[in-house]
Design goal:
about 425 residues; four-stranded mixed sheet; UDP-n-acetylglucosamine1-carboxyvinyl-transferase, Chain; binds ligand EPZ; alpha/beta; about 30% helix
């Protein structure tokens, strides 16, 4: 299995282009099913999860091509049912969007239970509550989820927890529900807005995405067209943090600075120099950073998807910091790996107490999930010596050309397929 060898201790310098946002892409691709037409989706990250969605759409009967530049042409005209019980949907979490999209267009969907990162229980009760309110009837077994409806009728739905997935799923099904649907306590994440923008560009009537009340008026049909996915704020945040931890100087291009505000604010509070431009920013380490406390929250709070690299950074900042993970109960599993690198972090349930150390040291570690994997790469970039990151298939699910991008910034990284071919750095 592939692993990364990383020689740490090099200051990152240069320019990096941020790819399209994985989590927006993974909502917009299933949303193309609703159009029943040909769509061209641009600025897709070329990552494993996008390829899985290409395979899902193909399996359903769509005509799909994906270029190595991240442009997908998906003609979903010929899909006539949304029935995919063969386990393909277990490869990623975002397959739950087939429920909303398939129910909207075909009024009947069956999928295997969605998979994805093991970061907590990840219930889908709010998805079920919302789709039921529109008329959906669920049949759930250990392995399969079916939802079907005679017809969909708009309704008022109050989400008990702020859920990105439930908000988008309900929005998708409501596009074809009769009358008005109102989602209250909706998620406000940029990919909720991006999915709504895509659907509106294809003829839907969705208002209020980006606020906590979303109103959808059902329409008869959508049409095809072209759409470009927003930049990945999680990837961008990861490079910002990598600049900080290596005491580097990076220009981060192709971003929407507004989406990065929760991260920018915290990094500035720590003493990092950040200059914002129209669609880029410069992150420049100038002076010793100070510890801060962080609590992950729904957008516009500090994102759970950047909790891990931020914890890595704080582990190298002298003094004490506290990180509280309030979204997913099992998102500190990588700390054991980080402590192997000399970090001094104690975890008590959802709270990590960090005592910053001067330097991390090289170690052999394993990616426990996608974001944890990226965080460990960041840790290795800062550590003295040559580290090894195992199980990088997690990272490949969500970060485009990670080693190439870091190498262009002066990092020493080599992907190695197995031990026999261990590369010299
Ligand atoms: C999305 O997951 C993202 N995944 C996650 O990114 C991200 O961490 C998360 O939103 C929060 O921003 C995708 O977009 C594919 P939620 P999702 O529903 O939709 C609870 C990554 O690494 N909840 O907003 O699964 C849930 O347990 C991934 O890129 C319910 O209780 O997250 C959690 O505590 C990981 N019932 C909270 O809500 C429900 O029905 C937020 O979850 C749904 C969620």
């Amino acid at each position: 299995m592939a692993k990364l060898y990383i020689e740490g201790g090099n200051r990152l310098r240069g320019k990096v282009n941020i790819s399209g946002f994985k989590n927006a892409a993974l909502a917009i691709l299933p949303a193309t099913i609703l159009t029943g037409s040909e769509c061209t989706i641009e600025n897709l990250p070329v990552i494993q999860d996008v390829m899985v969605y290409r395979d899902i759409l193909t399996k359903l009967g769509a005509e799909v091509t994906l270029s190595d530049k991240g442009v997908m042409k998906a003609d979903t005209t010929k899909i006539d049912k949304c029935y995919i019980p063969n386990g393909l949907t277990r490869k990623l979490r975002a397959s739950y969007y087939l429920l909303g999209a398939g129910l909207g267009r075909f009024k009947d969907v069956t999928i295997s239970y969605p998979g994805g990162c093991d970061i907590g229980l990840r219930p889908i009760d709010q998805h079920i509550k919302g789709l039921e309110a529109l008329g959906g009837i669920f049949e759930v077994t250990d392995d399969l989820i079916r939802v079907y409806a005679e017809k969909l009728v708009g309704n008022k739905i109050y989400l008990d927890v702020v859920s990105v997935g439930a908000t988008i799923n309900i929005m998708m099904a409501a596009v074809f529900a009769e009358g008005k649907t109102v989602i209250e306590n909706a998620a406000k994440e940029p990919h909720v807005v991006d999915t709504a923008n895509f659907l509106n560009a294809m003829g839907a009537n969705i208002r209020g995405a980006g606020t906590d009340v979303i109103r959808i008026t059902g329409v008869e049909e959508l049409h095809g067209g072209s759409y470009s996915v927003i930049p990945d704020q999680v990837e961008a945040g990861t490079y910002m943090i990598a600049a900080a931890v290596t005491k580097g100087d990076l220009i981060i291009n192709n971003i929407i600075p507004k989406h990065l505000e929760p991260v920018t604010a915290k990094l500035k509070e720590m003493g990092l120099n950040i200059e914002e431009y129209g669609d880029s920013l410069r992150v420049h380490y100038e002076k010793e950073l100070v510890p801060v406390n962080i609590k992950t929250l729904p957008y516009p709070g500090f994102p759970t998807d950047l909790q891990q690299p931020m914890t890595v950074l704080l582990s190298t900042v002298l003094g004490e910091s506290i990180v509280i993970e309030s979204i997913f109960e099992n998102r500190f599993r990588y700390i054991e790996e980080l402590n192997k690198m000399g970090a001094q972090i104690k975890v008590d349930n959802r709270r990590a107490s960090i005592k910053g150390v001067e330097k991390l040291k090289a170690a052999e570690v394993k990616a426990t999930d996608l974001r944890a994997g990226a965080a460990l790469v960041v840790a290795c970039l800062a550590a003295e010596g040559v580290s090894v990151v195992n199980d990088i298939y997690h990272i490949d699910r969500g970060y485009e050309f990670i080693e190439n991008k870091f190498m262009n910034l002066g990092a020493k990284i080599r992907r190695v397929e197995d031990e026999e071919h261990k590369a010299t750095l």
